[in-house]
Amino acid sequence: MEWPKELLDLFDDPLLDGVRPKASAPTADDRMNQKLAEVRAWIARYGREPARNGDLKEKMMWAAMTALKNKNLME
Asked: How far is the C-alpha of 21 from the C-alpha of 44, rounded, in Å?
């Protein structure tokens, strides 16, 4: 398929230089993989699993880790 010249000229318009397609929303798998990476990074940084009675960030990591373990994504 050939694009009409008028349309091709629009793509070259400097006003459209910053226009990009909207990024797609992350999927449930994307969010789960991100959380898994965050928990693993936390464990690597502190050398232990997060505890339920830690500070707020640690409690959040503990909750995420527990949810991932319930889905059998963490060993």
From this structure: 36
